[in-house]
Amino acid sequence: MQVARRRAANKDTNTSTTTVENPLFPHKMRLHLQVLVALITCSAVPGTLAYKPVVILHGILSGAESMASLVREIEEFHPGTIVYNCDKFSGWYSLENAWRQVDQVRDYLNEVGKLHPEGIIVLGYSQGGLLARAAIQSLPEHNVKTFISLSSPQAGQYGTSFLHLIFPDLAAKTAFELFYSRVGQHTSVGGYWNDPQRQDLYMKYSEFLPLINNEKKSSNSTSFKMGMVRLDKLVMIGGPNDDVITPWESSHFSYFDENMDVIPFIKRTIFTSDSIGIRTLQEAGKLIIVVKPHVHHLAWHTRRDVIHEVIMPYLD
Q1: Which of 152, 202, 248, 283 is packed most tightly, with the most Cβ within 10 A?
Q2: In angstroms, rounded to a whole number, what is the distance separating the alpha carbons of residues 164 and 136?
């Protein structure tokens, strides 16, 4: 099926992809209209290649507008691509409970997937990558062909540099006092805060990351793994100069041990036990690890050269 370039505009410019929710224009109807417009446009673009639709999820304390540069690059260099720049949980709303966000992202991906039976690509940046992964795991019958995790704390976070805007005096060594509590678990960050020296509290209080990583067994453990192994391609992108994801190797499922040494993901239980299917994907040649130095966290989705080197090759 051939698809076409989608141009979304906001009230200030003609480049943003932010969408304002209109109660008289339901979200699902908007998705259908978007596809229809894309198909009509496609008929006017001879030779358009049939790139798979791309769903993009923004990071914490930002919104769909922050991903506009990435959307423009995709539309320019892959003409005909339908891009869904998800506008859910923007700004301060991105701090809401992780599961509440995942529930809505899951439904969004399910709706988009039904519109494109040929399959879709999902790219999640920073916290958005973690939420997207959980949403995919919660859809064991999804049709996501490629999942791109762009500098996301897939093994957890143990750094507070990005939180000082909200909690000015928060330090990593004492953050557990906030996050490992009922109040803390109402925040998205509390759900994936992974203190390597407080693993007993992490397992006791954390209601999100230990579940989607199958560190805590649940009635959904099997389906969480099924959702992952259903992927045709899992692309994990990160780098040593990120300065936000801590440790930066968390973007590849590697993480600190109790001595604060980073253990490669292939030596961690999540891989050796194949608890969520990462080993299965690797053995099938479906796991791609990308390490890119000299890229700050805020540049992964904004620097043109980075976008073309680490993202565009995996959009097909």
Answers
A1: 152
A2: 30
91: left (phi over 0), alpha (psi -120 to 50) or beta: left
Q: Which residue matches tokens 């109402």?
A: 186
pLDDT per residue over 48-70, tens digit each? Answer: 457 999 999 999 999 999 999 99
Catalytic residues: 126, 242, 297
Of the CATH numbers 3.50.30.10, 1.10.10.10, 3.40.50.1820, 3.40.640.10, which one belongs to the domain with range 54-156+219-314?
3.40.50.1820
pLDDT for 162: 72
Per-residue DSSP letter, 247: S
| Residue 27 pLDDT level (bands cut at 50, 70, 90) | low
pLDDT band at 76 (very low <50, low <70, confident <90, very high): very high
Domain residue limits, the chain: 54-156+219-314
Asked whether 198 and 176 are in contact (CB, 8 A), the reply is: yes
Residue range 82-125, pLDDT digits in tens: 999 999 999 999 999 999 999 999 999 999 999 999 999 999 99
Whether residue 300 contacts residue 150, with contact meaning beta carbons closer than 8 Å, is answered with yes
Assign residue 216 a region: left if phi > 0, alpha if psi is -120 to 50, beta otherwise? beta
Q: Who's near 273: CB < 8 A, 6+ residues apart?
A: none
